[in-house]
# Entry
Amino acid sequence: MTEPAQTEPAQSTPADVPRDQALDRLARAAYSLSAADSRLRGRATRTPGALSLAHARAMRALADRGPLTIAQLAGATETTSAATTQLVNGLVTACCVTRERPPSDKRTAVVTLTDTGMRRHRERQASLVLALRTVLGDHDTAALDTATDVLCHLAAIYDQL
# Structure
């Protein structure tokens, strides 16, 4: 089996150097964001009651859309059904969601946010909004929209790596 052809990056011209440096800073910031996510996941596994970003995404999807099947929740959280099942197990244990099989289809599990889950979601969302306003309060709407665009592109790049 042959290895796929590797494409060499184009040679930079002196005019490209500032942009290349900016792209390098962005790459380093992306690595830093990934490391922060790992630290958050670590805290969520060591600290009783802590919520990971995956938990928060699931609870937000349920708060926004209402009860969802495991497959629908997997799509909403951009993960696999197997990973979502594990995620839901943790949220059930934390009394944040219920999981029930409808009488009409015993193969499907429907996940519903509990009152506790809704309260925790609202607390987490308020904390996130406060942190974003505090840290990014001096950025105008255009800068925030640009940051959103960059993060969406980074997510697509991560999916390709």
